[in-house]
Amino acid sequence: MSQSLPHRAPFRADIVGSFLRPVTIKNARLAFAVGEIDASQLRQVEDDAIRASVEQQCACGLHVVTDGEFRRAWWHFDFFDGLQGVERYESEQGIQFNGVQTKAHSVRVVGKLGFGTHPMLEDFRYLKSVSGDAVPKMTIPSPSVLHFRGGRNAIDSAVYPDLKEYFDDLATTWRDAIQAFYAAGCRYLQLDDTVWAYLCSDAQRKEIRERGDDPDQLAQIYAQVLNKALEGKPDDLIIGLHVCRGNFRSTWISEGGYEPVAEVLFGSVNVDVFFLEYDNDRSGDFAPLRFVRPGHQQVVLGLITTKNGELENPQLIQERINEAAKYVDINQICLSPQCGFASTEEGNSLTPEQQWDKVRLVTKLAEMVW
Predict the structure, then answer these.
(1) Measured between alpha carbons, how far is 258 from 287 in angstroms, rounded to an integer?
(2) How far apart are CA 127 and CA 296, in angstroms?
(3) Residue-wise over 15-29: b if at least 16 C-beta within 10 A, else e?
(4) Does residue 136 form part of some domain?
(5) How many domains would you assign to the chain?
(6) Of 107, 22, 65, 128, nearest to 342 (Cα)?
(7) Is residue 116 in some structural domain?
(8) 3-state helix, strand, coil in the chain (%, to 5)
């Protein structure tokens, strides 16, 4: 396996995106909430923390960097808040994970969907300005995430009496977002998506049917929405799709291998790269990777867990990569942590030192394997 690190994304050693929030940001957020500092002072603290994080990512051997999602409270809601036609509200309860629940918060569609002057465009421009020779990657939620959790009930029927028009606008909104980030200088964009993992879970599929939806039909719809959003994508823009089973305070929501969606997801969705969680038995085996199309499309195996600080055995990880290579060419495989380290501002149950040890392990293993 002498294939060297590629010079463009995805990289043999890659990352999903979020990092544990530094104490400086946590304290600044608290100070901002009670009016002790203003928005510009908070942003300066975030700027400083992002610059330091980028330096640390590079010091760990990465060729790709993110802003750690340091300006966000949530991996998805903060992006949704900036869309036209979307309204945030305090829901009756939070999202239920395995043994723990998030804060009560959600969004609903109350007007025509659109992508205007989104604040995260400026967030990316700052990341790009401090990335040096590394490739800055932007992470945003996938369009299916906006639809899935609330479904029809979270979409104003007076605005969208016909869901076909809603899905058309959903795709157009993300296509406009993709073009806007490209215009801002982004050449590596990741769509984070919990929905494809829910469609792999027997329990979640049962809930989907109970609310009146067909999980297999939803998979087809979401694939169509994604592909429409990707129409006209510039050739030098790499777009990845991260499939996540839930990541809040080291807990999870869904379980089950990729087989129920593999043929539709890997066989028809036109992203350049799939980021797939494979850090435990909940993710199933590698057999679904047989549907990954040969050639350009890449698979980033999330074999290093972000849910605890225990370092994986390098030999066992190499063996798992070799096992995956039975189903997809080794030159189409890369390595990353299974998810972010802090998909919400609360973060997972490990220390910053353990977090960076995990990142260093990814880069070390990539050098050993490729």
Answers:
(1) 9
(2) 27
(3) bbbbbbbbeebeebb
(4) yes
(5) 1
(6) 22
(7) yes
(8) 40, 15, 40
User: What's the one-letter identity of residue 196?
Assistant: W
Q: How confident is the model at residue 332 (pLDDT cuts 50, 70, 90)?
A: very high
Residue 246: CB atoms within 10 A of its CB come to 22
Our measurement of the distance from residue 249's CA atom to the centroid of its chain's CA atoms, rounded to an integer in Å, reads 16
Residue scoring higher pLDDT (299 or 207): 299
Give the model's pLDDT for residue 96. 44
Q: What is the mean pLDDT of the chain?
A: 90
Cis peptide before 215 (omega within 30 of 0): no
CATH number for position 326: 3.20.20.210
- DSSP code, position 155: B
Per-residue pLDDT band for 92 (boundaries 50, 70, 90) equals: low
Distance, CA of 63 to CA of 263 (rounded, Å): 31
Token pair of 215, please?
């999980």
Query: What Cα–Cα distance (Å) separates residue 231 from each residue in 29, 83, 178, 185, 189?
Result: 38, 20, 10, 19, 15
Looking at residue 295, its pLDDT comes to 85
| pLDDT category of residue 4 using cuts at 50, 70 and 90 | very low
Question: Does the predicted TM-score (pTM) go above 0.90?
Answer: yes
Nearest to 77 by CA among 220, 158, 180, 194: 194
Tokens linked to 272: 């350049």
Least confidently predicted of 97-101, 180-184, 249-253, 358-362: 97-101
Domain that residue 77 falls in: 60-369
Dig out the tokens for 363 from the structure: 């880069």
**What are the DSSP calls for 271-293, one per residue?**
-SEEEEE-SSGGG--SGGGGGSP
Cβ proximity of 137 and 66 under 8 Å: yes
Give the integer Cα–Cα distance in Å for 270 and 327.
19
Strand partners for 88: 107
**Helix (H) or strand (E) run with residue 320 in it:** helix 314-324
In a domain, 69, yes or no: yes
How many angstroms separate the CA atoms of 79 and 224, rounded? Answer: 22
Average pLDDT over residues 248-274: 81
For the ranges 20-34, 88-102, 339-353, which has the lowest average pLDDT?
88-102
Count of CB atoms situated within 10 Å of the CB of 191: 25
Asked if the structure places residue 8 within a domain, the reply is: no
**Phi, psi values for residue 45, rounded to 5°:** -60, -45
